[in-house]
TrEMBL record:
Topological type in the membrane: Multi-pass membrane protein
Organism encoding this protein: Streptomyces coelicolor (strain ATCC BAA-471 / A3(2) / M145)
The protein, known as: Transmembrane transport protein
Domain of life: Bacteria
Gene Ontology MF, one: transmembrane transporter activity
Places the protein is found: Membrane
Gene Ontology terms describing biological process: transmembrane transport
PANTHER family: SULFATE TRANSPORTER
GO cellular component term, pick one: plasma membrane
Key words, A-Z: Membrane, Transmembrane, Transmembrane helix
InterPro entries with a match to the protein in the record: SLC26A/SulP_dom, SLC26A/SulP_fam
Keyword check for Ribonucleoprotein: no
Length: 496
């Protein structure tokens, strides 16, 4: 058998995977750099996370076609963590996140992330998108962005006024706006032209325009791949005694895991290959984040943009995502100086576009028409993230989702039958929980005090302790008025 025939037998899809890996590499390159710059860390660290996503997570079982790397969805959280605790502590946070993900995967908790309300996840991404857009508008104009999300939004009018009075700021802003325009219009070009990913084309054109016309705009600072890899030291691990940092680790774990597993579900809908094994995928993400933490790099998640590009390019096996990591490594090792030519306004434009896509504009109105409670959760989660912070905003959304679910699960009907003579009959059906106590007691206390009552609970599916106690107390009070004792028919189901 010839070497070519043997290769084709052992790797029957190598052509498709090779082509797909090049496409994913071209999509990932500008996004890795842009996410790193927006996160307030050296650009090379974004490439390190992309490389680990390919060479470590890419090899592991879980989701065969999903591609991992630094994600825009964690940019706001990473920036806040670096600003508050410093860059060395980022490695500790990411390392701890990876270890927690590994533990959760080993305990088979990955599937439970699918139980998180979709409205909370969409609200989380919308809040991130709003803060990301606001922050990158400052960067596009070459201005310093405020620290908090709400200050970023409220400060935009003042920033616009400052930009209008500065030629340099207007030039920078025009370059960022042009980058966004190229990405939006790129989809309308013929399919052959769109072989080059829109983000790469936009950055390439912005870089060429900057060099050709000698525009005075900020460009990416380059340090070198080995120089930016700084494993966390003992001082950084000492930050684990900080309760705030522990909360940040929880936020990283929750958001990175949820985004990865929701992405896996979306990618599974795009192809007919093997389905995702969620616990194994969570462990794969954990292994990748553990390595990223040791290297002091950005956290990783599965990224739907890269993953969908991988599927669309015809990838058939995990070889495509591993090879995309190889191409990122070769670029970072051989052509690092190219990064220094990229204008920061162009990267800001890419992230404004990415932030816009995180906001589910198309689904909000239909959601409001059909499920107003879910729409409210989405909006409250997004607003909370902007107004407070990422972690507390997500917790608010989760708490609201739990309350809504508990309320809807407490369906209860109180039916009163009064034939004018004899006892008044009260029938309770559904689920009697403490959330429905006001309704239950209001209806029972309105019954005539001088008439005997028959309380039928046989139609209840669930009767919690609070409701049972309240009903017993009401029965005692009613019976004490001098009428016959309340006759109670207990629920039929055992253990209710």
């Amino acid at each position: 058998m010839s070497p070519i025939a043997d290769r084709n037998r052992r790797f029957p899809h190598w052509r498709q995977d090779l082509t797909a890996s090049l496409v994913v590499f071209l999509v990932a390159l500008p996004l890795c750099v842009g996410v790193a710059v927006a996160s307030g860390v050296p650009a090379e660290l974004g490439l390190v996370t992309g490389i680990v996503g390919g060479l470590v997570t890419g090899f592991l079982p879980g989701s065969s076609l999903q591609v991992s790397g630094p994600a825009a969805g964690l940019t706001v959280l990473v920036f806040g963590a670096v600003d508050q605790y410093g860059l060395p502590a980022l490695g500790v946070i990411v390392l701890a996140t990876g270890i927690v993900q590994l533990a959760m995967g080993a305990l088979k908790l990955g599937r439970w992330f699918r139980a998180i309300s979709l409205s909370v996840v969409e609200g989380m991404l919308a809040g991130i998108g709003l803060v990301l857009i606001a922050g990158q508008l400052y960067s596009a104009a070459g201005l310093q962005a405020p620290a908090s999300g709400i200050d970023k939004l409220t400060g935009l009018p003042g920033a616009a006024a400052d930009a209008l009075g500065s030629t340099g700021a207007l030039t920078s802003l025009a370059l960022g706006a042009g980058t966004v325009a190229v990405m939006v219009l790129w989809k309308r070009l013929p399919k052959r032209a769109r072989t080059v990913p829109g983000a790469l084309a936009a950055v390439g054109l912005a870089t060429a325009v900057t060099a050709t016309f000698g525009l005075s705009v900020a460009t990416v600072e380059v340090s070198g791949l080995l120089d930016v890899i700084q494993p966390p030291g003992a001082d950084a691990f000492g930050e684990l005694a900080n309760v705030g940092l522990l909360g940040t680790i929880v936020a990283f774990t929750l958001i990175a895991s949820a985004e990865s597993l929701f992405s896996a579900a979306a990618v599974d809908r795009l192809h007919d290959g093997p389905r995702t094994e969620y616990d194994k995928e969570l462990m794969a993400q954990g292994a990748g984040n553990t390595v990223c933490g040791i290297l002091g790099a950005l956290p990783m998640t599965a990224v739907i943009v890269r993953s969908s590009a991988n599927v669309a390019a015809g990838a058939r096996t995990k070889a495509s995502r591993v090879l995309h990591g190889v191409w990122l490594l070769l670029f970072a090792a051989l052509l690092p100086s190219v990064l220094g030519l990229i204008p920061l306004p162009a990267l800001a434009g890419i992230l404004v576009h990415a932030g816009w896509k995180l906001i589910p504009f198309r689904s909000i109105l239909p959601l409001w028409r059909d499920h107003r409670g879910e729409a409210l959760i989405l909006v409250v989660t997004a607003v909370s993230i902007v107004a407070v912070n990422m972690f507390e905003g997500v917790l608010i959304g989760l708490a609201l989702s739990v309350v809504k679910t508990a309320w809807e699960a407490s369906h209860l009907k109180l039916e009163i039958v009064d034939k004018g003579a004899g006892p008044v009959q009260a029938h309770l059906t559904g689920n009697a929980t403490f959330l429905r106590l006001p309704k239950i007691l209001e209806g029972l206390e309105a019954l005539p005090q001088d008439r005997p009552v028959e309380l039928d609970l046989s139609g209840l599916h669930h009767l919690d302790h609070a409701c049972r106690t309240a009903l017993e107390n009401w029965a005692e009070r009613h019976s004490a008025a001098g009428t016959d004792p309340v006759k109670v028919t207990e629920p039929e189901r055992a253990g209710v």
